[in-house]
Fold this protein.
Amino acid sequence: MQPDSITWTTLEFEPQERHRDWNWYAGLVAAIVAVLAFFYGDMFFGIFAIIAGITVIIYAVLPPKHLTILINADGVSINQELIPYASIKQFWLDETGKHDKLLLLVKGSFVPLMALPLQGVTAESVRAVLKPHTPEVAMRESRTIKIFEQLGF
């Protein structure tokens, strides 16, 4: 008998151990880019570099949010926000990394590929709940995401 629903709690992302000077390095890179942009007369890109640097530092300092994920007959719910199965084109359980992840391809979403870490549940139990509602198709996260994870973002 297949389970009707499954739920788990996980962190939004895995917290990174950063050197205490990491924020200074990020700010220095943003400042150098901004100064070069201003030197070459590109005011818009200089302002953009400053805003981007500040944003990166702010998000690097913030702790990850706790996510409560529920998969049931209605769809996938992330912190009470329902994604109906009609919006989910396909799913894949990525079991190749350090931690298993549920990848969802969602149509009509600002973030079309969602990666949800599996914590406290098995990939097989998640697959058993999702399989009757949406197709399982091989997918992978963007290489850009992997590179940024290696850089400490």
Residues 6-13+66-151 form a domain with the PH-domain like fold (CATH 2.30.29). The chain has two domains: 6-13+66-151, 22-61. The first strand starts at residue 6 and ends at 11. The CA atoms of residues 10 and 28 lie 33 Å apart.
